[in-house]
Amino acid sequence: MLHITDIKGLRCNGIKEGKNGLGVVVCSGNVAGVFTQNRFKSPSIVVTERNIKGGWIEGMIVNSGNANAFTGKQGMRNAKRMCELLANELKTDVEKIAVASTGVIGIQLDMNWIESKFVEVYKDLGNSKDHAMAFAKSIMTTDRLPKIAGCEVDECKIAGVCKGAGMIHPNMATMLAFIFTNADFRSEELREMLKMAVKYSFNTISVDGDTSTNDMVLLVATGEFRVGKDKFLEGLKSVCLNLAKQIVRDGEGATKVLKVEITNARDEDQAFKGARVVVSSNLVKTAIFGCDPNWGRIVASLGYAGIEVNEELDLTLRGYRNGELIAEVKLVEDGVGLGNEGTAREVMESVDEVQFIIDLKLGSGKGYAYGCDLSYEYVRINSEYTS
Amino acid sequence: MLHITDIKGLRCNGIKEGKNGLGVVVCSGNVAGVFTQNRFKSPSIVVTERNIKGGWIEGMIVNSGNANAFTGKQGMRNAKRMCELLANELKTDVEKIAVASTGVIGIQLDMNWIESKFVEVYKDLGNSKDHAMAFAKSIMTTDRLPKIAGCEVDECKIAGVCKGAGMIHPNMATMLAFIFTNADFRSEELREMLKMAVKYSFNTISVDGDTSTNDMVLLVATGEFRVGKDKFLEGLKSVCLNLAKQIVRDGEGATKVLKVEITNARDEDQAFKGARVVVSSNLVKTAIFGCDPNWGRIVASLGYAGIEVNEELDLTLRGYRNGELIAEVKLVEDGVGLGNEGTAREVMESVDEVQFIIDLKLGSGKGYAYGCDLSYEYVRINSEYTS
Fold this sequence. Notes:
- The first copy, chain A, is α+β, with helices and mostly antiparallel strands and 387 residues long.
- The first copy, chain A, folds into 2 domains: 4-249, 4-Layer Sandwich (L-amino peptidase D-ALA esterase/amidase), CATH 3.60.70; 257-384, ArgJ beta chain, C-terminal domain (Ubiquitin-like (UB roll)).
- Helices cover 34% and strands 30% of the residues of chain A.
- The first copy, chain A, contains 11 helices and 14 strands.
- In chain A, helix 1 packs across helix 2 (72-90), helix 5 (187-199) crosses helix 6 (229-249) and helix 7 packs across helix 9 (295-303).
- At the A-B interface, helix 8, helix 9, strand 12 and helix 11 of A face helix 8, helix 9, strand 12 and helix 11 of B.
């Protein structure tokens, strides 16, 4: 398993105390980012979006437990102060630091806690696997597991870490994801590739249909090795998709991953759009939780997805356990239900990932989306997670 | 309480056996309808949409427990056959009958059951209050209560009945609603007024964000009395809103009604659009279930609603019990949280309707939306309601 600390020159650390966490990564490189499209952006988003315009950062500071969102001028001062803490230690400009926050909205940060924990975290920065895990854990909120992924492309390494379990319906970016590479690309090149990779990964997932105020994906490249753009983009896509899938697998209260794949839609955009609407449907999500192959709800949600549809569609269920295909059951052929619900239910009861493949027979567009089921536990977590 | 049987000349009846129900209304009059925008329309929708083009109907036949949706040519034949059953008895054209269905998607109707129950229902048609209630109960699915409403405008009466508890996120219309009046209007006038009334009532509610394949609202006018259009429209709006609120109050698993009102938005459309996005947010809905005045989730959902927003907003909570205002608590002023969450939580714990009033301070647009909380019970109902 590749860790972010396998990128030469990168040092990091983090701590988590109850609901609050603080993490720091020190890494010089060209940078690109994508950010939430929510119109109420966290001051952390506003500051980082501005700071990375220079195309270069020296490090980042991240807190969890408090989103520093809807916190007005005080929130803006606090976000800048967080950057300043790290900039002072690194003897660099405050504009070369990125800041990110995740947690409850509408409450001012406890800056005393942050300032004192920063000292602790900073003095123990390092590049071991334990340091990478400490950072990954420090940014978690309702996440059950830290989320890391990596791959190698020639001599180049790409390693990422992310967090997210609720308020997940990314639009241009998702909760927090930080990806590091020792490849050599200019920040404009990084941005172009990051946007593409995010489109096919973070932007295809949904846990609860709620787009956060704090979504952010940053990509930092230290410039150690050169590598072909196409090869690198493939690697970057695979790391992003790997991280995105870890988010839905850890979706709040989730017991099963749901993938919807649409083939032969009018075009690719329609296929992706339709798939995302289906995985976001509360009725589809509760059916998955109940191991109910209720394909009527799937076609109903496809019908309001705003894409061209065809009633003569085919619909097939596939069940996976630990990534392995267990069984495939065709439920609908040429628009006619085949009465295979009994078999399908048995498959659903024995797997951890359910896939529905919908063949629209209209064109050659192909797309997919990942989500998870909606369980009692989702309701418990979100009715008890107090403001 | 006004019943549909208070409209002169109207006779009805219905029965419910387990999950299945059949209801019949005989009533001659000018007719208008609005129908689901889901692209997979039930054959019942297709047939009724076509039949009411003539502007006149003699009666309607409705089944519950099976949506007759995604049932192809056989479903179309069955929908027509249902119209034929009633047309034969009334010795009228099959094109003067409306048909509606609600229930599970993707399964063919049990026409033997429908034909035999039709005989029973038809022979006991009548115009008593009990007959009205029998019809209202026959169209229920997961509804806990029958839903009726009415008002008088001069000598004119407007009386309606509807059903709906899940798959509720109407777009142009909602689940099944049938409204009758003895007023005298041409079908084009009825249609124009119905569209307006639906916009401010059924189209402002959401239970789970899922738009049904079977939504239908029909308005039948027997032409007994003349009344002014403006007066009638006010009455029609109030009946539609009354019915729509009964749907959210009976939303699957709902313990509380949620109303969001936006004032001083850029324009009316933005105010209605924003309010509906907020009441549809799973995170807002679970917070209401947990009596958590988590206004951070409210502003976050407003931020992705696609409308113009202003961080300097005011946000106030109002709690109602049995329609009576219990308390009002201001949570945010000029974009700053006031720290009144403790008081707000106490209010939420003691009421059955929670309202959030958001003052955007941008223009003069005003709009609202109704929804309900998301509870364990919603998950139970929808993970166990088998296909």
